[in-house]
Amino acid sequence: MPQVARPSLIEITPHTTRPSALPDHVYAVLKQRILSCDLRPGERLVEKRLCTELGVSRTPLREALNRLSHEELVSFQPHAGYRAAPITLEGFRNLIELRTMVEPQAAALAAERATAEDVAELRACALLPYDPEDDRGFVDYCRSNARFHLCVVRAARNPMLENIVMSALDLYQRPTYMKVGRQRDPRNPSAKHRAIAEAIARHDAETARDVMMQHIRGGGERIFAALKAANFT
After folding, report:
1. Adjacent-strand bridge partners of 82
2. pLDDT tens digits, the chain, 233 residues: what are they?
3. Are residues 97 and 199 in the same domain?
4. How far apart are alpha carbons 156 and 118 in whole angstroms?
5. 20 to 30 Å CA-CA from 105: which of 20, 45, 90, 150?
6. CATH code at position 136
7. Considering just the CA atoms, what is the radius of gyration of the chain in Å?
């Protein structure tokens, strides 16, 4: 059976309200709220309040919470209930290590396997809308950034790798929704993405790998330092 890629934050569409799809709807809404830090890291998830907000009973809510628990986006403690996953220095360092292990190789595979259509999509996604002072626009930037990385890993033609890359990226972007570690130079992300796209277009696996590694390390070090400065533990 082929591996089905888990949707990333940018692909979740929490608008379906058919009764048969109600748990999926609740899952999608809560996942977006956790990953975008609308539900703050470590926040207690009060079931009664969430049922009222979402207009659902506890059965689909708990089914959704169990799914999110398996993805380590919520945690459950007896007598305390569910909480949104915290952001910790150790957890973020683990994300940097994971991304630097898998995404440069995904870029190299993309350089070997990308079609002309893949390259056209990469080039179209490389230019990111960006104003670090515009909170609403920053959400668009995060989604556009994720879309570019999704295009890279899909060009690698490996759904299992896609699951790993996109799950890690969704978690990695959480601090920036809280204005922790945001890129201040609006030219930087687009420049790195264009360099990766052009290396893939040339089928230059080594350069694609190297630029992706620089891209991830630079961003990871910036956000990690900002988390430390903001007294995350």
Report:
1. 45, 76
2. 445 555 565 555 544 444 457 888 899 999 999 999 999 999 999 999 999 999 999 999 999 999 999 999 999 988 889 999 999 999 999 999 999 999 999 999 999 999 999 999 999 999 888 777 787 788 888 888 999 999 999 999 999 999 999 999 999 999 999 999 988 887 777 899 999 999 999 999 999 999 999 999 999 999 999 999 999 99
3. yes
4. 10
5. 90
6. 1.20.120.530
7. 18
